[in-house]
Amino acid sequence: MTHARLQRQLSAYLDGELAPAEADEVRTHLAGCTACREELSQLQHVKALLLRLPERSVPRDLWAAIHPRIGSPPTATVESLGEVVRRMLRRPALALGAAVLIVALVAVPLVRGRIERLRAGEIGADLFVREHALASADDPLSDRAYLGLLIGDANLALAGTPREESQADR
Amino acid sequence: MSRGGVLVVWLVTVLAVPGLGAPARPPWPSAAAVVAAMLTAPALVDYEGTKVLSAVRGDRAETVTALESYKRLGKLRLEFLSPESVSGRLIVDDGASSWQYEPSYHLVIRGPSFLRPPGSPAQAQEFLRGYLVAVLGAEEVIGRQTIVVAMEPRAGGAGRRYWVDQATGAVLRMEERDATGEIVFTSFFTRISFGLNLPSAVFRFHLPAGARIISLFLSGDPVDSPAALRRQSGFGAAMPASLSYGYRFRDGTVARYGALATSAATYTDGMRALTVYQTPSSKMAFPRVGIPVKLEAAEARLLDLGYVRVLIWQWRGITYALAGSLPAAALQVIADEIMR
Description:
The complex is a heterodimer of chains A (about 170) and B (about 350).
Chain A lengths: L2 H6 L1 H5 L5 H13 L1 H18 L10 H5 L14 H10 L1 H45 L7 H15 L4 H7 L1
Helix pairs in contact in A: 6-7, 7-8
Chain B lengths: L2 H14 L14 H10 L6 E11 L2 E12 L3 E8 L7 E4 L3 E6 L4 E6 L8 H10 E11 L2 E10 L5 E7 L5 E7 L5 E12 L17 E4 L10 H8 L8 E2 L3 E11 L2 E9 L4 E8 L10 E4 L4 E6 L4 E7 L2 E7 L3 H12 L1
Parallel strand pairs in B: 6-12
Antiparallel strand pairs in B: 1-2, 1-11, 2-3, 3-4, 4-5, 5-6, 7-8, 8-9, 9-10, 10-11, 13-14, 14-15, 15-16, 16-20, 17-18, 18-19, 19-20
Helix pairs in contact in B: 2-3
């Protein structure tokens, strides 16, 4: 299992949710990986903070209010769709608001998808260079300093601050 | 025989037998021995030096200077000195993770290690199967005696030349040439110190106070066949097991960054890697980088970073990218092969 995969399992490891074999694997990896030990330590800290939060008790009358309503016939609060539409047409402002909401619900994912596609087009080449440079590390005669330079430049671009921009900014 | 007679006999003999009067040249090691020494050097020596890298990127050359420190068996520290755009960048790789600090952004980027365990002498045989390796001679580099070796892929492609320190096996200088013989990349030490047993603390990253941290672990678990990669990604075409220029499938993985997911099939010719990426075109706009290039069945763009070239094109709803150190013409041949 890779470092990245093991790192994603640290939370489950901390909560004791892993199978014994998986937990052993994580434990072995932790022995040799400083980064994962630090991550685990941070997770432990967060868990400790959460445990310190006070528990709120449920109001005593909550169940008494809910129980009589279970199994009772639906009340007038449930309206037919036609009734809702007719009521909204009698109030144009409400109808307009609803229309805007529906358009927004449809448009936002579309716009978001388009923005993500454009962003992917901008960073795609950097992702390709970075992952290829990491794959090239298996070539024992590759130049490590140049691989570091390529990976470093691509990392900056993926983080949203490509090197060329930094040069122009100065 | 008189003293004058002896002198005449020696002179005649020296003139008749070329090289007899010259000081004896020590025999050069075999190509296999040099390659084996290069592979095992990272297990044997620590070093610290100043390195100059020059890469031809399209129509311009970029020169970068860095301090490179290496500790066996796989710890690296790079401090970039120039040009201004990288000055101050620090990369520390402890063999498990790499840490990159960008002082101008007060930003730390953490990612996977790009160091691998030292090679073995057995790997030298693998190289010799895929590469023509020739010992060209001996030369002095920064006051140290080196053996010069040339490596040319048997299946064609860019050749490399290495100046290998005779005492340690470390590469003190390296050149990469394209198919026309033009040098497209050089790397050389201007100063180096060996065997320092550098302290481990040099290779430990200390987080600067208040720095922003970004983690970039983008690749999932690797798979060992093109079919498994196709199943894992859920998109694109199954890649062939081998490609031109002696490349065969090594492993595959799916890399994700935000909404961008791409499948990466990595091939090797025994030394160098070649990666084929596939991304649904619906998820990625066509990258407007590099220069336009024409393929048999599609328009493409070529991004030339000197040491690495990336060829990108769209075909049947998939955006393909080829990344490798092969010359541009060879990348085009492979791109056409993938589309057939």
